[in-house]
What does this fold into?
Amino acid sequence: MNFTETVTPTPIAGACGTGSTTQTVVLAAGSSTIDDFYTGMTIGFAGTGGAQQGEIVKYVGSTLTATLAKPIVTAPVVTATTYTIGTNVLYMPNSNFSASANTSASIYFNVDGVKHVLLGARGTVSFDLSPKQIPKMKWKFTGLLGTVSDSPQANPATNFTGWQVPVTVSTANTTDISILGYNAAVIEKLTFDIANTVAYRQTLGSESVLITDRKPAGSISLEAGTLATKDWWTPVKAATTGAFCIKHGQTAGNIVGFTAPQMQLTDPKYSDSNGVQMLDMGIIFQPFGAGGNDELRICSK
It folds into this structure.
């Protein structure tokens, strides 16, 4: 899939610095000076202002300033408000498309008693976070066909100790939504795709499946409303880019957040849903930082 995994094994804590607001937080001295180091992570507050939390959609290392997906109720007070960035695992796409540098999968599956083996498999993944259903990850693999036989294949030992019961996409479970800085979108459908380009390649002396490119994109259907409420047409015409964020799950250990520092809405079309006017638009996720590889951040926490 060409993702890089970064583990934050212990919580990161500190006192809020001078200049914090309801949507920007200045972290403590000694915090990372790397831009977007904390982007995609959840930050919680305690002390003055009470218990609050938010999703980080941007981080400027030179000023130690984190921007939240949506404003919190009370601005942090310097030294009197503390923060904690919890343990998490962050996944980001990478552009190392060399076959030798990438891992691949061996997939075994049984069809009516016939065992199939797929070797050197690589692929792509898409996500569906549409309401009233359990969110889904849909995988698509291409591989080299190995041995096909009637040989019995014992099922592997399984351990579901760490399995988390999924929760449906809903107003209660799915929060911190930000689309180009707007927090009040009413969404009916939301899907996005890493869209890796997967190619089968055969030459004299070699045969492999490669990931050669990616073009992360998606689609969204939301209530159109009036322009006074939210004008979506102007940012589409101007090719405006901005942050995207959505968090699903509210219990630690069963939360996943999706953050894109630079998304663009495209190709708006009207549709109808039970008599409600909807606006269907495409989404493009673009690289943001100097090093790229940050079109979409997936953070488990």
Summary: The mean pLDDT is 93. Helices lie at 233-237.
